[in-house]
Fold these 2 entries.
Entry 1:
Amino acid sequence: MVTNRPGCRVLPQAIYDEYTMRRERNRNKELKTELLADRLSDHRFMANYFRLYLHTAALNLLVRLRQAVVQTLPTSAELNLPADFPTEAIDEPNRKRFFNKRRERDPLGGGFASTWRTRLIKVSAEVITRARRVIVRLSSSWPHIDHFMEVSRAVNMPPPQPSPG
């Protein structure tokens, strides 16, 4: 394996382990299984094409939402590692602790579509339509209301303005 990633000279085995464990390789699998993009059972091409287009748009929306709510990664001090230690060079036991801490801190930033679906999308709510607004009432006992509020705040934030220059 040829790489220029930080930490490759410190622990080359950790770089390989990180490569094999990374989740980006599962995005096609996520599109196919979790967003059900493999269901192209219509006999017409345009119907299947449109269905695949909608599933791909849903995945893009999910990726954008993940990027909007992503939290900071655990620091080296939390893992009892030297300061400025590259994430890619963390060995196997510490890597599991790193991923577990990251998942505790940020369950939605790297979450699969099924996580988003169960925590935010498939939710019982009362929808009240008025002339000037739509009110969505969520249950006060819903266990993931904090995730919903976090995503709502992130989506309602104005986009960062480019710096002049």
Entry 2:
Amino acid sequence: MAAYLIRRLWQMIPTLFGVVLLVFLLFKAFGGDPAEILGGLNATQQQVDAIRQQLGLNEPLWTQFGIFLKQIVTFDWGKSWATNEAVSNLFATRLPATLTVMVPILILDTLLAIPFAMGVAYVRGSLTDRTIMVLTTVALSISFLVYVIVGQYVFAFQLGLFPVQGWSDSVWTNLTTYAPLPVLLAVAVSLAPTTRLYRTFFLDEIGHDYVRTARAKGLTEPVILMKHVLRNAMIPILTNVAVSLPGIFVGSFLIEVFFSIPGLGREILLAVNRSDYPVIQAFAIYIAVITMVVNLLTDILYKLVDPRVVLK
């Protein structure tokens, strides 16, 4: 296991270097002139040249790339062009709000989808199964914006159960007052596709020979599902969760914008609209690192869930 971890961590270095190089070249090729963006429409040519000199844009390309690498290694991303706030501080202050909303969404979606999908797989082919599949298809066809608008109108305006928007400095207040409505709506949206997907995983395992052997031994269907099918279906379920996991560190700009949550998702959207390159570049590297770490942890979990998995 130790050798595998060292090898995987070593392999991350060229992968991360490739991501950094790609981000740097893309911004150089298609990002426009940062000096002109910072200077604004009314800036003179002398002002633009002074900004370009200050940012080191007059240096050779390889020197600029070295400065970019130094920023990544030292975690000094400079300051946001729009707000003059340190990019590192921006991430540190926005991430807690994002996690307050996204972590409950992922946990509830996973914990609810697995038993729902197992129950549907248990009654496979029945009227209940077909009805649930139709309902999930309808739920998938409705835009998330519709859920937000209807949810805010019904639960906030009409019933007064939750505030429409808002956020505070207290984590407990946010969890109990401001986060429940966006979490409820997000889980309602994500539960339909995950239930259908996990149902497919369970049905695929039910068709294997070991299930027929278990039935021949006299085991009941619930025991087979809980003891055998669930464990073997955990590999693709973990894969699906791993794909979603980086999203909890990114946030949802739709949720954060419509519910006025000061998280990373809304900040990235604002950065894109403002052409705030330091924030966008830092975010690109940040999500690449998170994705690689999550993939490594998922591979390790494969071994814990199924001892037959060999880590090479």
